[in-house]
Amino acid sequence: MDSSKIAPENFQQPDEFYKGLGFKPGRGRQSKELMDRRCHLDKMGQDFQHHELCWSCGWSTNDQLGSTYGSRVRILMSRHNRGLWALGSQLLLKDIPNDGHGPGNDYITYRWLRSQSGLDIPLLDRMEVLSKPTDKTYLLLMSRAEGEPLTNLWHKLLPEQKESLRGQLFLILKQLRIFTALGAQDVEGGKLDDLLIGDCPVPRPRYKKIGFTADKWFESLKSELQVGLAKKHKTKDMTIIEAEYQKLKGRFPNPEPYVLTHGDLDFSNIIVKDNQITAIIDWEHAGYYPWWAEHYLCGDVAFGQSSSLLFPVLYRLDPGMEARIKDVYNKVLEVRGLWESCKREHPHYHDRWYRPPFSACEPYAGHFLRGVAGGIQEREHTIQDLNLLNFE
Q1: Residue 199's CB: how many other CB atoms inside 10 A?
Q2: What's the CATH code of the domain at 209?
Q3: Where is the Aminoglycoside phosphotransferase domain (predicted)?
Q4: Most buried of 49, 184, 334, 361 (most Cβ within 10 A)?
Q5: Phi and psi (nearest 5°) for 306?
Q6: Which domain holds residue 251?
Q7: Does 184 reside within a domain?
Q8: pLDDT in tens, 187-244
Q9: 312 part of a folded domain
């Protein structure tokens, strides 16, 4: 987290955080410099009209002029229609549309891991859903992990420190991968978003889910894969396309066993203090995936950032993985390449409302984009290339 955004709780020294303050002793005289700075502002304060200064937080002229309050609730990060807020120095709050597609899996997985006896996986001390299931906004309260993301540290660590972290992660993943399932699902048996193949570049709700078995997975991708095969083989002949589809399915790597997987072991989700992993966070994508998925997602979703940490750990957990993983990648990427060659569209995704400038002196505008706003139960998904297939 960016510590510069966290308001300190030293209430007697606001100048430690709020820049540009001018100090005047209670019984003393203010400096000429401060008098000059305040002259115009004080005149404005004598004759003002109440109005809102910040449309996002609601701060008004009354708040600015008539209180000693400086908010300890501050935005740390925003993405799409999601916000992460710092509540003081020890708590965080996720604020997200409650449409069934928010980070509920983060809490579900956290709660499930906490319920398993004998596990020694570093988690946040506290996670609590504040909203009701019927509320339109999903509010998730979390404690702050001690330390900082490994993103900030990895490049500064000595080889022996990196090896120590690999050893710690080995023990964590060894416990995690003991848990297996008969097919792809989250820890409560729900469906997983398809981040492996049918991964449209849109936020939740994603249209494609990973099928419980390889056959069901391929069935959910069939139309797009058929279009991709038609393009590859330059044919509309469904007999040829179907034969190639079956060959493709037959080449696909065996997904079994389905092991409990974090799904996003990026450095930013590994919190470290004094070279000890204090928390693994953001279990939003966690669930039972094919045995090779943690490796694949590290290289794909995290763009390989944490591969120097994770790959040696996975090879130690599964000594045969290193020899097999290249073949797995080639076969998975073959399927994904065919999927991506099919043109797809999400109607109304790019509808937007442009914001007015934040203020006259801060003319930053931006927009509200319908496609990332949330509040919908299912993503519209159309295939533009179906005319390439001859269904007669």
Answers
A1: 16
A2: 3.90.1200
A3: 138-298
A4: 184
A5: -100, 10
A6: 148-389
A7: yes
A8: 999 999 999 999 887 777 778 899 999 999 999 999 999 999 999 999 999 999 999 9
A9: yes
